[in-house]
Structures are given as C-alpha cells and as structure tokens.
Amino acid sequence: MIAVIDYNVGNLASVSNAFKRQGMETVVTRDPELILKAQGIVLPGVGTFPVAMSHLEEYGLIDVLSQAKEKNIPIMGICLGMQVLFEKGYEVEECNGLGFLEGSVQKLQVNAKIPHMGWNELIFNQNHPLLSHIKEKDYVYFVHSFGAVCPDEELICYVEYGGSKIPALVGKGNVWGCQFHPEKSGEVGKKILKAFKELIEDVSDTSN
Fold it and tell me: Where does the UniProt annotation place the signal sequence (predicted)?
C-alpha cells in the first residue's frame, strides 16, 4: 500500500490516481499508523516551502516521516514535496526542511522565464533504478520557481534551463524526489512511477 501524505498542499487526487493506474493500492492519509504500515510513501505538494513545513508540523507528520525513513520505507517527494526533503528552503523566508537530503532550495538563477514551466529533456547524472524504464533526453513536465542545490552524489538526473543545471530527480538511501510532475509527464512519468513501484516491491521482498 502507498500512503499519499495529506497535509493540505494540493494535487492529492492527481498524484493518487497516477499511482493507482500503476496497479498500486493507494490511500490519501495523515494517519501515523497507516503511514508507518505503508510499503511506500509519497509526499506531494504545491505552494510554498514554509507553509508546507508548517502543515507537516501542525499534523505531527515530521516525526512520523522521520520514523518512516528510519524504518527504510521508500519515500518519494514530488515538486514541493521533493523540496521539503532538503535541509533548508529560502522561499519567502529561511525555513528548516525535513533534512532527509543534503542541500537547500533556492530561487532559480536562470537566464530565462520564471517560473520554469513546461517540458524539458532529462540528462542522466548516474545510473539509478528509477531511470530503468526511460531514456536520456526523454521529456518531463515542470512548474516551479525554486530548485534544489545539492551534492552531486544525490543528483540522479537534471535538466538544462536558462543556462543553469536544475536537479530533476534526486535521492539518497530510501528517499527520492522529483522536481517535475511524473503524474503530468505522460508515458515517461508512468515509467518512472513503475520503477518506483518495483523499488518498493524489492524492499518489501527483502524485508520479508
């Protein structure tokens, strides 16, 4: 079962439905017991970094997500949900994130229109199971004004936009994040979610 975290930051239905289309049992929840029993966790989100963290704190989810990480439950953040996985964000004000990934989230420094909105081709930085069903230069869909600044070892793939390298897919251990929207990225997005499903199944098989 996939737990899609409900912390009042939008796009829950589209994310949940995308995982259901991959044949995964999916529940939208903020119930700690359900979250900690899940095979995988998805942290979606649209909006601002401080509001997201405030809502996670309000619903007692920061500690729950930390417990899930320590239990080695696969966690996938999407868009704003990816951003709060990092140590700090600088949107509106400096704000601590979950700290599951090293680095920070800062205003995009690009010679192009902000927000960064539309389709861009992925450039692979490392081999990773999440890329197993897609090809380099496949296109995915972005809508964002802030991006991650992170160590190279966390960078799975990126896009080039406005003369800058923008992290697209990041990860460390059992925590991964997509800056783009896989649920809006057509067949490529579906294939990335399929790879996430397979990672979840591998973890479940190992733990049984």
Answer: none
DSSP-assigned beta bridge partners for residue 107: 146
Considering the entire predicted model, what is its pTM?
0.95
Q: Domain containing 35: what range? A: 2-207
Q: Which of 87, 157, 181, 198 is catalytic?
A: 181
Which CATH number belongs to the domain containing residue 20 in this structure? 3.40.50.880
Query: Which position among 102, 150, 183, 201 bears the catalytic label?
Result: 183
Could you tell me the sign of the dihedral formed by the alpha carbons of 81, 83, 85, 89, in that order? negative
pLDDT tens-digit map of 44-65 = 988 999 999 999 999 999 999 9
Contact assessment for residue 20 and residue 26, using Cβ atoms and an 8 Å cutoff: yes
Q: Any catalytic annotation for residue 181? A: yes
Q: Which of 25, 70, 79, 133 is catalytic?
A: 79
